[in-house]
Amino acid sequence: xxxxxxxxxxxxxxxxxLPSSEMKAIDAHVRDCPPCAADVLIRVQxxxxxxxxxxRYSPSPxxxxxxxxxxxxxxxxxxxxxxMAASAVMAxxxxxxxxxxxxxxxxxxxxxxxxxxADLHVAALASPNTVDVASSDRHTVKPxxxxxxxxxxxxxxxQNTEFTLVGGRIAYLGQAPGAELIFQVRKHYVSVxxxxxxxxxxxxxxxxxxxxxSFNYETWTEGxxxxxxxxxxxxxxxxxxxxxxxxxxKS
Amino acid sequence: xxxxxxxxxxxxxxxxxxPLFDQLYNFAHWxxxxxxxxxxxxxETYAKALRGLASFQPGxxxxxxxxxxxxxxxxxxxxxxxxxxxxxxxxxxxxxxPSSAGTPESIFIEKSQEHLLQTAIDELPLHFxxxxxxxxxxxxxxxxxxxxxxxPIGTVMSRLSRARRALRELLQKKLGGS
Lengths: 251, 178
Prior knowledge:
The complex is a heterodimer of chains A (251) and B (178).
Chain A: H1 4-14, H2 20-32, H3 34-54, H4 61-84, H5 91-126, E1 133-134, H6 138-144, E2 163-173, E3 176-185, E4 188-196, E5 210-212, E6 215-222, E7 225-231, H7 235-250
Antiparallel strand pairs in A: 1-2, 2-3, 3-4, 4-7, 5-6, 6-7
Helix pairs in contact in A: 2-3
Chain B: H1 10-17, H2 21-32, H3 35-51, H4 62-75, H5 78-84, H6 104-111, H7 114-123, H8 126-137, H9 142-149, H10 153-174
Helix pairs in contact in B: 2-3, 2-4, 3-4, 4-9, 7-10, 8-10, 9-10
């Protein structure tokens, strides 16, 4: 009778996922243990049967064509343009064009990322449950995120400031989970999003507060995390809150 | 399938994503159990991946990224939400139930009933079905599976073991425990 831990190991052994020293140990054991050898044989046969049975469904040719068209339209247009511009006379213009489109695309991606963030901010405020954890106590809000997002962060002490913490919720950007913290300043709400830096590669830190579709926002990185503060309040408020958050992150 | 370029372009995306088409469709059909839903799911996955190219982290596994998008899209679909709500939250912490004696696989393999195995896979709870398919059919490494399902490797290992056990038990039941 094999222990459960051993069964997990045996599975990992057959999946080729054990370190070589453990592989050798299991090899040796299986050779000397007929019940285990029989079990291994059955598991191998089962793996093969699963492999065949699992490849059950195939897409129709029409569907394949549809997807191919969906994802090929943009690069093909680019390719044909590039071909047309490939003459020697056009070479310089082509380089200038590529540079220009690269810069343009960067700007577009940046705009797109900020639009998504603005959407998240508006969606949270429009929701009947603006926050999933409602508390002005940072010692309640921060632990609530434990196990829900793959990182942690520090929240500032807000006593003697104009800001109050309303609460927090989970937000997603680029398929990655992050934290959305909602603060209040006078009658305005500020969303502060915190994601891992790679979740929003299009976002670039700039100096101070900027504007996007009439929202003021500031974004910066600290310790591998991307912070974005966004609100309809004044740029001055956002920059004050950003400073508090930056100081808390460094503490 | 590690992508080490600075930025994934739309042209490179086509080259990387189209070879995954058949397997993504197969996986989608196993999840949704229905052709038109599987097609919608795959189509949305490609559209989302193309839109979100900037969020793909160069140097990481592209295949796992595509599967993650597909699975997240499925989980937020109507069918996915229904299925996910029936999965016990502590599925990975539940104590192991010792499997009863007998080797259903040997009986099964002797009988070569592929259809029976497919029905059994279909009946597995989603979290078991997906981990087994990614391991056995897609032949993903544990790390890739962990990336695709956004779970730790230790969970991949224990879940796989439980999934195999559950499949054995289902087969045993189907074979009448003989």
